[in-house]
Amino acid sequence: MPKAFTPKVITANHLAEGDVVYLTSGDEWTRDLSQADLLTDEAIAEARLVEASTQHHLVVGVYLADMKAGENGPEPVHFREEFRRRGPSNYFHGKQAATA
Amino acid sequence: MYKYNDFDTAFITERNRQFRAQVERRLSGALTEDEFKPLRLMNGVYLQLHAYMLRVAIPYGTLNSHQMHKLADIADRWDQGYGHFTTRQNIQFNWPKLGDIPDILDALAEVEMHAIQTSGNTIRNVTADHFAGAAADEIADPRPVAELIRQWSTDHPEFQFLPRKFKIAVTGSPNDRAVTKAHDIGLRMIERDGEAGFEVIVGGGLGRTPMVGKVLRDFLPQADLLPYLEATVSVWNILGRRDNKYKSRIKITVHENGIEEIQRLTEARFAEIRPLFSGVDQEMLAEIKGHFAAPSFATRDTDAFDRAYDTDPVFRSWADTNLSEHRAEGYAIAQISVKAHGQTPGDASSEQMRVMADIAREFGHDELRISHEQNVVLPHVHKSDLPDIHARLKTHGLATANIGKISDIIACPGMDYCALATARSIPIAQEIATRFDDLKLEHEIGDLKIKISGCINACGHHHVGHIGILGLDRAGVETYQITLGGDHTETAAIGTRTGPGFGEHEIVPAIERLVEAYLKLRDSKEETFLQTYTRLGMAPFKVALYGEDTRIKAA
Prior knowledge:
Chain A is an alpha+beta fold and 100 residues long. Chain A has helices at 42-53, 79-86, 95-98, and strands at residues 8-14, 20-23, 29-30, 59-70, 73-76.
């Protein structure tokens, strides 16, 4: 049996600001992970990644990040994505400050 | 200090103009990231986890007060009000916006600073002993040589697309404070029969494959330096592996070809190019030396120092821990710890930068240094001024008496910032410092170097820490491996792994067990952690970490 596909979101860094962004179902870039489109089909995920990767005038370093479905949209399964969603642990900077 | 000439100013201005246009083309979409990346890296611009990062060179770690003030202004205007001093004597700004970076570079140019070749596959910022020009044990000031190498290597047409980055460090003292044996090339200034020259060490490095550098030439006359460096780098430029970035550094080239073969090729190339160096470089060196003339040291009594030392235990503790011997009578080298317990190692707020700059201007011949151990140095202060300096530092959280102690930790930015990291470093450093401060054991423990890296690239120098900590991702969990017995000095050694790693909440108790074991095992208060480890080996420390069972299995 093939391995089950781990759901993913498309993520990148914003070209001008450098901060973390995620792709919504409406093909917009959002700074809020809960607004991101959780992709559960591998073929669709790959196709949307190719499309998103052409937007080099908006974003940098587009990739698929593993996520799970949560009460408020996608949630990280790995600590790296948790830090990307939150910001550094030594100062209250980055996303955690923007949403406070 | 080195002062730019017309050529330097014109060069930086033109480079900044070019980069401004490149950034505009990138933001308009005219350049793709693949096209732009090599250009931004040439100018010190990285993209990290949460933002861009600008790495600014502090050549051989030397700054004046104007420059430090400018760094503070940049932190306030374009960043989050602080900067991070690195193990290569650079400063990093963690939050700039891409569109602002050309303005930041112009601001830096106003005080003769730049970010050129702080990144990319080039010869990087040349580092030097942070006590240069001040240390009592110094044979010669390494900074003029470091400046000469900087000028030679900047935009050197042969060396803009090297197999990988290339790092050079220079020391003018037999006591190596510049980690020369862990650099691609380490230069030790020496004298032989009254002639000044260098011992050239090649192929040191940390990272995935740590190596202690080997002697390439035991005595190189001073005038041969640039052609010899050019020969060495060009041999590696041809032989160095471009097929595998993990095997591209010169340490691997030396390892795979053998030091004798590298010597043979270097000497052959050197013989070819030596005649092309007409001596202009030596004329330039003589001129550069003029910029680094020692300040005129005052002859004053040290009564104020002696009084404070006898009556104020807080001052005495700071003086005992943070001062080093100066070459001039009545003077001291003062290290300012930017590692107050619980703070991020190497970070200074804009306010702290201004305080340090003002102290340097008023009391310290306008000089500051950044050490590879991520602290700030006042290289020339008269002892009689130290009570005033200490009082001022104290009000700004800058008077921590911990230089060389357990809380004076080198830590890379780790996964709190760095896109390459596999685990966080900063919180571990913060917790160790806070824990041992709570225990009030720091001064009882004595000299101990803990160095933490958040990935195998070893920016936190963990391989050469007396205790090294390496953060890894083990099945989605932050895990920390310990190495013991590393040494960053002239007796450089790579630490040995103790065994399985520890989780985020286990690593600080593990370090505590190691230190408790040392305190029990040392034969006197004078025996340092490293000496005890060298005397007894790994076994008792393994027991402290993993329990008796391990010893039985290992036996």
